[in-house]
Amino acid sequence: MTAPTTIPPRSGTAFRLAEGQVLTVIDPQGEQVSDLVAFNAHDLGEAISSGRSLDYASKLYLTAGDPIYSNRSNVMLRIVEDTVGRHDFLLTPCSKETFKIIYNDENPHHGCFGNLEIALAPFGIGPDSIPVAFNCFMNVVIAPATGAFTVEAPLSRAGDFVKFRAEMDLIIGLTACSALQSNNYAFKPIDYRVDRAG
Amino acid sequence: MTAPTTIPPRSGTAFRLAEGQVLTVIDPQGEQVSDLVAFNAHDLGEAISSGRSLDYASKLYLTAGDPIYSNRSNVMLRIVEDTVGRHDFLLTPCSKETFKIIYNDENPHHGCFGNLEIALAPFGIGPDSIPVAFNCFMNVVIAPATGAFTVEAPLSRAGDFVKFRAEMDLIIGLTACSALQSNNYAFKPIDYRVDRAG
């Protein structure tokens, strides 16, 4: 088992994940969110799709055993272990515009979107291609009658994790989230580890 | 006011909608769904984004007054009138894979996705670019604790409509939906009309 790598607060990274490898996303301090996106390493037009994944699962909250499908309906990742069970797959990575529109911030941080844009550029992936992310540990609570939702503190505690098996060769983008609501108003790091399948 | 155009059952179309024009999507018989996608006519990398639109609205069910944002956080469309108030912006257009995975159909119809692919091709828009659609009249009912959802019969009755104002020059893709659950197990047409802003 390899040692974890730390993503510093309000930053992001990107890396290759080969078919069969297992990515563990760890919340080292608790109540932090990590936005995950994935692209087919051999054909960058294929990316994770919230719409297909949720549709085929017939549920909003994906957890252990659930596949994450691409826009071409292929399984890209499979969640193999999950100590939290509450993640979001509805919302886009926070961005300059998020901070302007939701937080009325006049000098906004570039957010997870900006961090993903920078991290994915060396792989030839442009910002228009960044899809709705699988937002690990993000806790979106929905009022069923109106559909109104709030972003609440994550249910994750220090050391909680979610583990994904790559079902094809992937480029992964991963962040330590920059949005106040998502993290219960404290910016923290995210750890991750890549292992061969057990 | 122009006469409506009919989209026959299980088919789709695409057309230009200029900034300031108003698109009315009409359910002529009731309980039918119409998947709508939109692209910036001058830069096809910009398309509607469920993730951004829902995030900025802080609700799942968009209706009159709500903007539909692009992946670049620009307003592409604004809902200006809505006689139903229940539409879906979570799920991808139904496709061959939808019918295989959800309905166990061995010889599946190509679905709204296939119809959009064919209709959008002459505009230079490929299938990988088709985003989560704004699914007019689609009635997705969510159990809040588990996030499990079901696709129920639309709340639309004959003549109900939703009206969108284009906030930029757009290419629109629009369908009469092909999925059984979405339409209460009856395939019906969709009507639409394009008018100058009133």
In N-to-C order, the SSE pattern of chain A is EEEEHEEHHEEEEEE
Give the largest interface. Answer: A-B, 39 and 40 residues
User: Kindly, what is the distance between the CA atoms of the first and last residues of chain A, rounded to a whole number of angstroms?
Assistant: 10 Å
Q: Globular, elongated, flat, extended or rod-shaped: what is the shape of chain A?
A: globular
Query: In this structure, how is the largest beta sheet of chain A organized?
Result: 6 strands, antiparallel
Oligomerization: homodimer
Q: Please, what is the average pLDDT of chain A? A: 94
Class computed from helices, strands and strand pairing of chain A: mainly beta
- Proportion of helical residues of chain A: 10-25%
The main sheet of chain A orders its strands as 1-12-3-10-6-5
| Number of self-contained structural domains of chain A | 1
Low-confidence runs of chain A (pLDDT<50, min 5 residues)? none
Radius of gyration of chain A: 15 Å
| Discrete helix count of chain A | 3
Portion of residues in beta strands of chain A equals 25-35%
How many individual β-strands of chain A? Answer: 12
